[in-house]
Design brief:
4 helices, single chain
């Protein structure tokens, strides 16, 4: 059974065009601007893309159709996420001390137990 839209046909066509053309373009433009503000590694860009995609499509669902507003809203949300929670690089997490999995050889004594 196919879902039936409650939108008028003309509005449905506009919304579909926004979802297929405008929203993806807004996501790409917002990512480009985000990268230009400060270079990030690939893992951060992938996380940013996911955050932007969810937020921008949420804006479209709420009726926003303007590409510039989608870009601005997406970047504002992304910066808020970055400020509040941080978007961490997978490479930086792997380089932290204690996260390498390095263990002393068997039989080696620690500083605490000579």
């Amino acid at each position: 059974m196919t879902p039936v839209s409650t939108r008028p046909p003309a509005q449905q066509v506009v919304t579909e065009a926004v979802e297929l053309v405008v929203a993806p373009a807004a996501i790409e433009r917002a990512l480009l601007l985000y990268e230009q503000l400060q270079p990030h590694d690939t893992s951060v860009i992938l996380q940013a893309r996911k955050i932007l995609t969810q937020h921008i499509f949420g804006m479209v669902d709420q009726g926003e159709l303007d590409e510039q507003r989608l870009i601005a809203g997406g970047l504002t949300h992304l910066k808020a996420v970055e400020r509040d929670h941080g978007i961490k690089s997978a490479h930086a997490a792997a380089k932290k001390p204690g996260k390498t999995g390095h263990r002393p050889p068997l039989g080696a004594r620690s500083k605490d137990h000579p």
